[in-house]
């Protein structure tokens, strides 16, 4: 839960680096919350079949859009890639696979052009 809250506290920080654990724990928590909100939308009748999204899950998705982009950019920075690599996801199928590989790769050892290695300094991270 702390990983999720730390990302939300840095909701518009596109500089620096993010560890794999920080990124994937944020994604995991987002998926869990989205599923729960979708179920609630279905139960209370606010799910729209035409739109493919419910009211609560849609509001939540909009609320975490900027933090999701920010942590993804910081994750790419951790692998010594520019945040602009996120745009590769716009290429159908292949782009998403390449981006997934980049997001799964280990950190660049030591400092890189985007800052110090977050594995070396666990400031703000609680295990």
Question: Could you outline the blueprint of secondary structure elements for this entry?
Answer:
Elements: H1 2-9, H2 20-44, E1 47-48, E2 53-54, H3 55-63, H4 65-78, H5 94-104
Antiparallel strand pairs: 1-2
Name the beta content range: under 5%
- Let me know the largest β-sheet: 2 strands, antiparallel
**Radius of gyration, in angstroms, nearest whole number:** 16 Å
Helix count from the secondary structure assignment: 5
Give the CA-based shape: globular
Report on this structure.
The chain has 127 residues and is mainly alpha-helical. The protein has a domain at 2-74. The chain contains 5 helices and 2 strands. It has a two-stranded antiparallel sheet with strand order 1-2. A hairpin with a 4-residue loop joins β1 (47-48) and β2 (53-54). It is globular. The termini are close together. The relative contact order is 0.18. The model is unreliable at 123-127 (pLDDT under 50).
């Amino acid at each position: 839960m702390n990983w999720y809250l730390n990302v939300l506290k840095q909701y518009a920080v596109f500089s620096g680096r993010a560890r794999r654990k920080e990124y994937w724990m944020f994604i995991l928590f987002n998926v869990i919350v989205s599923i729960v909100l979708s179920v609630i939308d279905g139960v209370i009748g606010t799910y729209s079949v035409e739109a493919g999204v419910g009211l609560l899950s849609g509001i939540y998705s909009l609320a975490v859009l900027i933090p999701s982009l920010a942590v993804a950019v910081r994750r790419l920075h951790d692998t010594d890639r520019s945040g602009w690599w996120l745009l590769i996801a716009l290429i159908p199928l292949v782009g998403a696979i390449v981006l997934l590989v980049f997001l799964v790769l280990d950190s660049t050892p030591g400092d890189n052009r985007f800052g110090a290695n977050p594995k070396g300094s666990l400031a703000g991270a609680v295990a």
